[in-house]
Design brief:
The longest helix is centred in the last third of the chain and has 7 residues, at 101-107. Strand 1 and strand 2 form a beta hairpin. This protein has a domain at 6-42 and 72-99. It is 12% helix and 38% strand. The radius of gyration is 18 Å and the shape is globular. With 108 residues, it is mainly beta. The protein has helices spanning 80-85, 101-107; strands at 6-11, 14-19, 24-29, 36-40, 48-54, 58-63, 72-76. The chain contains 2 helices and 7 strands, in the order E-E-E-E-E-E-E-H-H. The N and C termini lie far apart (44 Å).
Length: 108
């Protein structure tokens, strides 16, 4: 039996890693390769906003414009300084998603 290939899908400054069979393995920073963590959106719960301000139609449902309907965002867990200074070869042009310590605390 041959070993399964690992599939990497880059999205928004991070890389999601899966086995060939679809098993999720984790997420890493696309710039420096450090682990990445997801933070919930501060404006919605699941990428959808329900506005009940329309007196005629009742509830209006639309995609959250803060997270673009994702329900949160992924960030490199390394410091911004480390991530910026240590890009993987060929990844120098990718913008760091790392947050400083205060931003991490504020998000929780």
């Amino acid at each position: 039996m041959s070993p399964q290939q690992i599939v990497a899908k880059e999205e928004g400054g991070v890389v999601h890693h899966y086995r060939e069979d679809g098993e999720y393995l984790g997420t890493s920073c696309a710039r420096c390769g450090s682990s990445a963590e997801s933070l919930p959106c501060g404006n919605c719960d699941d990428g959808i906003i329900e506005d009940d301000t329309d007196p005629l139609w009742g509830v209006e449902v639309h995609e959250c414009d803060w997270c673009m309907g994702r329900g949160g965002s992924w960030h490199c867990i390394s410091s911004p300084e480390w991530c910026e200074a240590n890009p993987l070869p060929g990844k120098e042009g990718i913008e760091s998603t790392a947050l400083n310590s205060q931003a991490w605390r504020d998000s929780l």
